[in-house]
User: Fold this.
Amino acid sequence: MSQEATAIDLSEFQADILAIPEDVHLFLGGGRGGGKTQVLPFIVFRHCMQYGEHAKVEIFRRQWRDLAQLKDLFISVFAMLLQDRDVRKYWNKAESKWTLPNGATVEFSQCDTREDYERHHGKSYSMLIFEELPSWDNPLLFDRLRSTLRQPNTIRRIICTGNPGGVGHGWVYEAFAKHHREGERISTFVEKTTGEIFAYVHSTLADNPFLPPSYRRQIDAMSERDPALAEAWITGSWTIMSGNYFATVLSTQRNKTKPWLETWGDRPFWSFVIGYDHGTSAPCAFTLIAIANENCRGGDGTHYPRDSVVLIDELHSAQQEHPNKGQGWPIEEIAERAIEWLERRDLAPRAIADDACFADHGTTSIASVFSQYGVRLLPAQKGGRVAGWTILRDLMAKAEPAQHRVDPAFYYASNCVYFEECAFAAKNDDRNREDLDTDTADHVLDSLRYGLVWALRPENYVYVTSAPWAASTVKVDKRQIDDPKYRERLRQRRTVVDLSSATMVKPTAPTKPKKLPTSMSGVEPTQFS
Assistant:
């Protein structure tokens, strides 16, 4: 293989990739034009020659149209390596599949939906290649397809390529690109969830001596429209903020926690706020967030600093394969599902909703209709979108693993799958880079923002003891109740109000009005349990 590679003039960057041991998975990242895709046929050919009929290679892209050039590349390289001009006799166009003389197979597939994945479920592959991984807006299909990497009698391998930007920038950065160490071409790391070894291989335009000068000029021309993305493509930097809205602040390692399904931890020291974003053709979404009143233990058994915010559950109507499309639930069904969902948590059906839900459109408001079915909505009084996103992003950035938590931060439970999918697919608005693009699936994010901003408003710093939020019905450990220090802390906590009536009782207004904070530091959290 090395003689063939020398004969066809591989670049130094491509030769370094071929020298990486087979038992190391690869992510070929960095900037555009480095020659990442061009080295793939050589890796695949070597694998096929080594393992013969046991070699089962599957190459994925999100869309069929993007596979055309890749197929042509494999045809030209395989013809060269096999020294056979009639190499197309090994190619099955109907199945998009190579069957080489020794029985090895190389197949090209689109994978964009769960139905696409089902066609591979149950099969066994020796090598999986994901071209342009950031074109997938979330890691769900990638994770599912990894279960097919189980072909015996081979060294099994995953190879991914990708450039900064794209809808999946955030999750790809978190999974792979963040492990790149400045100044290193090859940075190895151990994947925490599996213990397998990956290598992030960094490239720039300078690593490909075969590129025509016109290619660099095309990227330079784009810099006027999107200078951040142009710089990322040239330098290969994944930390430049372009593409995913939460790319540099949201992390599955730092922000994600275990589910709060069986226990609430030190529940008397937590307050609970429910946000709601309405939709019928678009999804509706409820989010349940917990806010720590003290340094205390959460439902996942770990410690949280005071004022920490944890998204612990969600309820939504999004279609499984189309996160931006709703299932058409009428308000009656939404209310029934919400009541059942909240009763399991010992919480009453009241939520903080978009101010638009209270607008009278000639007949009645959305909030009034909800009230007829037993769900009371309260206006979020949310203010500017960017201000709300700024608070959320600031909290996300402060998250730390459980053993290192000091400052209040934002966390989410692993059962909040819809939130994770939408957050890692969220994009910047091209017209206002500080805002989130409303064309993406932002419904669960809006719901979270409504509840969080409402919780931070000074007039809502109250502790609810009445039935609507079921704080008074919480069962606590008798040893805690018998502790005098514990009882004194409860007594001194917050202003007590009764929300069982239709009129909210508010605490005395402060002498000076408070401004909406930009973070949770030093702010009394909402006592809306």
Remarks:
- The first strand starts at residue 25 and ends at 28.
- The longest helix spans residues 36-51.
- Residues 1-7, 461-481, 490-529 have pLDDT under 50 and may be disordered.
